[in-house]
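User: Some background: our group keeps a shared notebook of sequences we're curious about, and every so often someone picks one and asks for a predicted structure to add to the entry. Today it's my turn. The entry only has the sequence so far, pasted here. Could you supply the structure so I can complete it?
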Amino acid sequence: MSPRKPHTINRRNVLRGLGITLALPALDSLNTGTARAAKTDSPKRLLCVGSHLGFYPGHFFPETAGEDYKISPTLKSIEKHRDDFTVFSNLDDGANGGHSAVHSFLSGVKKAEASGFGAKNMTLDQAAAEFVGSSARYPSIVAGLEGGTNLSWNRSGVRIPPVNNPAKLFQALFVEADKTARESERVRLMHRSSVLDALRESAKQLENKLNASDRDKLDQYLTSVRDVEKQLQMSKEWLDRPKPKSPIADVVDQERMHLEEMPLFYQLLTLALQTDSTRVATFEIPMGFNTSELELGSYHGLSHHGKEEGRLAQLGVVEAYFMKQFSFLLDQLKEAQLFDSTMVVMGSGMGNAHSHSNRNLPVVLAGGGVRHRGHVACPDESHRVPLSNLWLSTLQWFGMEIEQFGKSTGTFSPMELGKA
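Assistant: Of course. Here's the predicted structure to add to the notebook entry:
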């Protein structure tokens, strides 16, 4: 394909009152030099995959850096996509707390410290979804096995629970509601809108009677109300628009093993992007992944391997399965001709489950029409680059003109890569 031509776009801020900004495709750290050119008429898409327990570091991270790195045991399952992804090491946002800090993977901010940030602990996917707005039927789709892993959070600091039934996701994407159901939903939306109007009016009457601290709290509250209002408006706009026809057979509601659900979810999420039902999708792999289906011990138990050879071997089987399905997802995106317009994020907020460490997180970026760099070994503790810098550059690639995300100190620039 032809190389990407260098270009500049003047920055401009709009919709400041809603906390939304526009413009500037970037990700300068990865698109230097020859790049795979995405179709200019194709909208940008983002797909995030996160597992609660991460990956055993000794098998995940390559031993050498650069584009000619030797593939690691865990990444072996996606080696055929080698030219189309970048693996990063030494990235995190300084979180600690083990399982209780995993949820900060895509935000850089723990829930407990969210009040100190304007966007609270809003995650990468929800920032992108807010930017997309009503351009698609669903601003985002969050799916996962069972209860998921608390991966997705909105601007109000509220967790987005995953859809954990493939049949329900299929229905949301492709099955039309009958007239009675649509009218019932319309009445529900109107009722919720009237309640929100009353709450907003009551809050405004209080504003002049409050001190500065309480006015800040009120402002946060009104921001939450505005978020709900936007979601309601999106629902109204799409309520009567026909859904696309499904290119696959109906997915029926039935008991399935996790081994069957994961590839089915990946297929459905690809179809959601392909039909432009959404432009932002997230998939969550929980700590309770059913490893008995692989005739192995419990996933959580194996993560506390103590470097015992037999338990590491079993954990390797689980992680190889995850990566095999991730390779299937990349295959699906390529077959649907979405790969070059979709940035795929894969990783975890857990760096080492055995020691409950949230440092040195496993992170892979794939697709996006950018030039990939093999293994990027980021600076160590003395000059550590925040993971939020990578998320900031990803959001700029997505089209957002923002200068800060989470705990970012700047974009993920070639200069920072040069320090490695």
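Suggested note for the entry: Residues 1-40, 415-420 have pLDDT under 50 and may be disordered. The first strand starts at residue 45 and ends at 51.
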